[in-house]
Amino acid sequence: MDYRTMFQQENETIMERYELSMSRIKTMISEQTVKKPFLTYFEKTALFIQMIGEYLAFIESGRQRSASFKELKAWNRRLYEDILPENYETSYANPAYAVSELGEDYGQLLCYLYKEIRGDIVFAHEWRLTDITILNEAFIEIYNLFEEDAQEVSAVREILYWFVSDYTDHTVSFRVREGLDPSLGFAADIIRKHDLTDLRYLYYFGEFISDSELKVAEFLNSLPEEKVRLMADTYTEGYRKGFQVMGRDLSKKKSVQIRYELGFERMVKYAMENFEKMGLSIILCRAAVWTVNTNAGRKAGYYGTSANRQYDYDHRYDDALYLNKAFKDRKAAVLKVAYETYKDLALSYAGPAVIETFGKEGFKPVNKAEALSYDGKQEKLAAEMSNETSRILNQFVPGDETSFTIIAFPVPEIGEKFEEIFEETIAINTLDYEKYKGLQQIIIDVLDEAEYVEVTGKGNNKTHLKVALHKLQDKEKETKFENCVADVNIPLGEVFTSPVLSGTEGTLFVSTVYIADFQFKDLTMTFHDGMITDYSCSNFEDPDQGKALIKQVILKNHETLPMGEFAIGTNTTAYVMARKYGILDKLPILIVEKMGPHFAVGDTCYSWAEDSPVYNPNGKEVIARDNEVSLLRKEDLSKAYFSCHTDITIPYAELDRIETVTKTGDRVVIIDDGMFVLKGIEELNLPLSGI
What we know:
Blueprint: H1 3-6, H2 8-28, H3 38-60, H4 63-66, H5 69-80, H6 85-88, H7 95-102, H8 104-117, H9 120-125, H10 129-147, H11 153-166, H12 168-178, H13 186-193, H14 211-222, H15 225-245, E1 255-261, H16 265-277, E2 281-283, E3 302-303, H17 309-314, H18 325-341, H19 343-347, E4 349-358, H20 376-396, E5 405-410, H21 418-429, H22 433-447, E6 452-457, E7 464-468, E8 478-479, E9 482-484, E10 494-497, E11 500-515, E12 518-528, E13 531-536, H23 543-553, E14 563-569, H24 572-581, H25 589-592, E15 597-602, E16 621-622, E17 645-649, E18 655-661, E19 667-672, E20 675-676
Parallel strand pairs: 1-2, 1-3, 1-4, 4-5, 8-16
Antiparallel strand pairs: 6-7, 6-18, 7-11, 9-10, 10-14, 11-12, 12-13, 14-15, 15-17, 18-19, 19-20
């Protein structure tokens, strides 16, 4: 059964409501029953909805599949034109413009509504008439208030609140299903059934298609089959090895979710074949569309290049419109029922396989007072809701029974040498597993003797950290650090641990680091007993704006976070590539974390699976899986986890020294002046000699 057929019965049931709502909205365009300035808002929004109806008819008639590339490109631009940077200043999707035209209270509310209605682009492509219809009906209900000149801000706000709350049974439940159900094969069918050398297929997804997606797809089509298969094989084999290394049984699982940015379909198609040979069905779900399902600064699923990153940023906290304790409890209840409904699918879900991209220009957001934002109470509620969601998820998809893998490739925005950088990235992703395993074990043997590690920065880098380590009870059978080669995190090249929080002290500084689509400059964090006590960056003239960005993107609105991981990266080959092309500031943390010492704030690497043994290739058990915060799970789960884990790396060029200190005070230097000096690992310096 194809995707469209699956929704046929639901669409037939709601068809009358859909047609009535579209008919009513069509009449709004010529009516003059609402006073200005609101009349223009309703007319423009009604025209957008009418365009969606036209595009839906275009799809249903079969004309989309027979249309030329030029025609599809024109439609794609028309659908997204309103929020493109050159038009955004006068768009009702822009909270600053909406407020300037409609007033502060109405502007925020109607801007939010228009943003949700823009989700119709996706719903039309996926034949989800229910989603279009319920949005139409909410729009009509609010229009009626203004038509009668009886509107009150509180009445509009109440309609939107109850609209979101009442329909969580639909919006949240479907989000759970699409993340677990391989039969929802909208995107998978596009990849399987279409000629990927005919780039028209990209427009079938319903995402904004930029030159980036087109160039990536065209470039992959130019590569020999064996190279693209190597990319796919490295990715899927890393996934399989993840289960093997963690001692988990992949044979008990039946599905895998592929997450990626459009343009990589040729690689994804081969990866789908590989996963199916492992006995796994493919889940390809889109990054969340409804605000109730989104997370600020994070996308999970498949997606296209953002039509406007400022638009995304402006709407990151749209849920502030309805977030209160009653809604938090309502959403949690719906999530529980949804996971219970799909519990068999949840139990057979193996985890995500992620393809990240890098190379985009750094984004400097504009903080708009007109955009919706959390108050202090909502920040706390959002953190509580995130933790509660994680607990529900772990109940039905146990973290100690799943795994994942992540790999990254560049996109054309990285510069003129995109193709060369792409080729070198393939080489980095396929480095010698056995060689690095041995070199990293030498480092681990020294770290296992240490009571703590000292890390200091060089030059302008103000890093000075003491990292406390766990104690070993049996050195013959136990180890403090995991020997990370090419499995869940590709490329290979790090040893990592969960530090002891008590005694972990000092300052962490990085001149530039890319985290969740934001380039932080002069990022500084201070730790006391392993917890963040202060933080800053120089992204804005106003230091308070910098602190707010860090709190949003890195701390995920928590007041503080523990140091959940300390690692030493060994992938000097990746570092040299970054220096060669001048792209160090454009690489994702996935690669950067292998290029020097890195520190993660938030949960440990073993969150929700601390009680599951983990072994290094030499057979020793990694015992540093907990810290003082994660151990609180034995008393109160709500205090043990933060639902985030963000890596921050000091590159070799900013690093002075890493040295271990034993209980007796003996010191052993691992890195000095950015070079590996520990006996037996000198080979790691060979790539650096060419800088």
